[in-house]
Structure formats: C-alpha cells, structure tokens
C-alpha cells in the first residue's frame, strides 16, 4: 500500500495519462486546471522539502496540459476561457507558464512576446 502523502501525485499523474492516452485533449486541459486548484489546497510547509509533492503535482499537471495543447486547437471562446484560467493558475505556480505561452501561440497572440522572423 502507498503512503497516503503520495495519493495526490498518483491521482494527478494517472488520470491525466488515461485522458492523454484516449486523446481526450479538452478533458486533459479541464483535468489539469481542476487538479491544479486542488493541488493549491495542499498544505504549504515552512520546509522546502515538505513542499516537493505540491511542486511535483504542478509539474505533472503542466506537462499534461502542454501535451494536450500540442494536439488540440480550442475554438476562440474556449481558448480565451482557458487562457484566463491558466493565468489564474499562475498565481499558485509559475510552472503553468509554458501552457500559457503555447495557448497564446495557438491563438495568435503576440503581446508581450518578441516577434520571431524565422
């Protein structure tokens, strides 16, 4: 049996992987954002080592979100909604930034980014 403190990380990883395997791209994004909110409710400890689980969950969720965005182009209204939610998630952890940047790229946003002429 796994130690109880590993449960959130396992849940984050396993459910996201199931959705990715099934190519449920929008469901992956929704799962990542909802689990992000639950992860933010995990206790914040004074000792950095005790916060490793929280950071691992954020890292897993961001990776799943980014993978989904690399396969999925949400329609404009959904994209704006996701972008707003990703930016809210950024208040808990900067690990979501690659998802924000990828979504902005997909949606053709250029504000705050240098123009690449490659």
UniProtKB/TrEMBL annotation:
Pfam families per the UniProt record, alphabetical: Cut8
Family membership noted in the UniProt record: Belongs to the cut8/STS1 family.
PANTHER family reported for this sequence: FI02826P
Gene3D superfamilies named among the record's database cross-references: Tethering factor for nuclear proteasome Cut8/Sts1 (1.20.58.1590)
InterPro entries in the cross-refs: Cut8/Sts1_fam (IPR013868), Cut8/Sts1_sf (IPR038422)
Membrane spanning stretches: none
Compartment(s) where it occurs, according to its Swiss-Prot or TrEMBL record: Nucleus
Main location: nucleus
Keyword line: Nucleus
Name of protein: Uncharacterized protein
């Amino acid at each position: 049996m796994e130690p109880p403190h590993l449960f959130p990380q396992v849940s984050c990883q396993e459910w996201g992987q199931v959705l990715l395997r099934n190519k449920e791209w929008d469901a992956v994004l929704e799962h990542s954002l909802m689990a992000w909110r639950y992860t933010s409710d995990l206790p914040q400890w004074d000792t950095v080592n005790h916060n490793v689980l929280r950071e691992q969950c954020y890292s897993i969720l961001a990776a799943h979100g980014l993978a989904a965005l690399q396969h999925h182009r949400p329609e404009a209204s959904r994209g704006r909604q996701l972008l707003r939610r990703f930016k809210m998630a950024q208040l808990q952890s900067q690990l979501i930034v690659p998802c924000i940047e990828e979504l902005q790229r997909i949606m053709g946003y250029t504000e705050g980014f240098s123009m690449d002429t490659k």
